[in-house]
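TL;DR need structure tokens for one chain.
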Amino acid sequence: MQKKILITGASGFIGSFLVEEAIKRNYQTFAGIRTAGNKKYLSDPHIHFLEMDFSNDILLDNALNNFAGEYGRFDFIIHNAGVTKSINKAMYSLVNFENTKRFVHALQRNNLVPNKFVYISSLASFGPGINACPITTCQIQQPLTRYGKSKLKAEQFLYANSAFPFLIINPAAVYGPRDKDFFFLLKSIQKHIEIYIGSTEQLLSFIHVQDLAEAIFLSMESAAIHQNLIVSDLNLYTSKTFNRIVKKNLDKKTIVFVVPVFVARLVAMFSEIAGRIKGKASVLNSEHLKEIEAMNWSVNCTEIIKLGFLPQFNLEEGLKHTIQWYKKHGWLKS
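>> reply
TL;DR here they are.
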């Protein structure tokens, strides 16, 4: 008998890959989406859709009870719904923390607690590594941004509910096909512009979205419980290495600009103003810039390695795969 899984935030970049991984593993797969959610990458006929409003207890109870009346209880839930950027700064806490808390309470209230609830958090909930030491799960969590703080609040809420069967995933920087954030950087290099903010030697860790999906399911299906798992491709890079690999794959030469931090702050400020006028969050904003300024986002993945995680892509192979996808789908010119 197929096990039932709910994946929230299913219409997003990571969520759509989680749905594909669930189907590949023969789960009865339910994609949790907003009423107006984009189904562009959710076309597989095996997908069942569940419209969910986490901001309203009554609507959430109705959605869960209607589901339970037809299918029973979810075996697993991957809670991937959230917001990474917003023109309204209060939205970080409302969506990432309050909605998570409301969802968990609804599951408990309606006796629909799954075997395991996997919360997709962020490396931002830890904050950067201290000096040159990689970020570990033992590090005191000191997030720099409202986004990171909202994710940490959700994690703390879960730890305060010790009877609830949760697991927390903290991915390094996620890239891959369909991603729009790293695509912004690739477009710059395609235009022969290579930009750094403050330094070319920022320490970084990455994870290809397909490897992340496999790591999440590996963790979910393991005995791991009540802990954070940091996930990357198990390698260490610099911002300069990232750009070198992109230039190689795009076959581009570039003009290098190392932008002083104070200039970047001014650009971010004007970018935010333009975003508010357009009603759309900008890629470069003052919150994101705080993380860009930090020199160390390298990670230690001891816990996920112990579970047997072996990524398919290192950064060179992953960026090659991603750029080929961008070209095939017309995002980048060949």
